[in-house]
Amino acid sequence: MESLSPWVIFFASIFTGNILLVYFLGMCSFLSVSAQVKTSLGLGLAVVFVLTVTSALNYLIYYYVLVPLGIEYLRFIAFIIVIASAVQLIEMIIERFSEVLYINLGIFLPLITVNCAILGVSLFMVIRKYTFIQSVMFGAGSGLGWLLAILAMAGIRQRINEKRIPPALRGPGIVLIITGLMAMAFIGFSGIVQIQ
Fold first, then answer.
1. What is the per-residue burial (b if ≥16 Cβ within 10 Å, else e) of 17-53?
2. Which residue range is the domain that position 98 belongs to?
3. Is residue 73 part of a domain?
4. Helix axes 132-159, 116-127, angle to 10 degrees
C-alpha cells in the first residue's frame, strides 16, 4: 500500500471506499440524525474531526508504542481510549460554542465513541499497512465521505413528502430504501480506484 498516493487514498475513501455506503459502518447515528441538514452537518463535522485526529493518534500509538513493546493485541483498547478522548474533546467544544447543536445531537454525540466507523478506520489503516500520511488522509477522507452521505440523506429526507409514501414505508422503511439506492450509486464509482 505504500505505493498509493495519499491523495488517491483520500479521494477513494470519500467515493469508492465510502466507510458508510460501501462498508456500512456507522449506520446507527446516520439513520437517526439524518432528518435535518443542520444537525447532520454538525454531527458530520464532528465525525470528520474525530476520524482525522484518531487515525493520526492511533497510528502513532500502534507503531511507536504497541508494536515496539510487543503488545499489539491491546490495539482495540488503546484505539477506543483515544477515540473516547477525542469525542469528549469535541463534545466539550460543541457544548461551549453551539448549545443548540449540542441539544439537537443529544445522545448521538457521545455515541460517536462507539461508532464502528471510527474504530473501523483505525483498524483498516493497520490491516492495510498505511504510512502515517496515508492514515491521516484515509481518516480525513473517510470522515468527509461519511459527512457527504449524511448530508445527502438529510437533504433527501427534507425534500420527500411523507404523505405520498405508503404508511408501511414511512420513517425507517423509506430511509433504508434511500440508503440502499445511495449505496448502489456509490458502487458506480468503484471502477475508478480500489483501496482494498
1. bbbbbbbebbbebbebbbeebebbebbbbbbbbbbbb
2. 6-191
3. yes
4. 150
In a domain, 1, yes or no: no
- pTM equals 0.87
Three-state SS string over 82-111 comes to: HHHHHHHHHHHHHHHHCHHHHHHHHHHCHH
Quote the CA–CA distance of 124 and 188 in Å, as a whole number: 22
Residue 107 in any domain: the answer is yes
pLDDT in tens, 176-196: 999 999 998 888 777 676 666
Number of domains observed in the structure of the chain: 1
Residue 196 lies in a domain: no
Condensed to tens digits (0 to 9), the pLDDT of residues 97-135 reads 888 888 877 777 777 777 788 999 999 999 999 999 999
Between helix 6-14 and helix 132-159 the angle, nearest 10°, is: 20
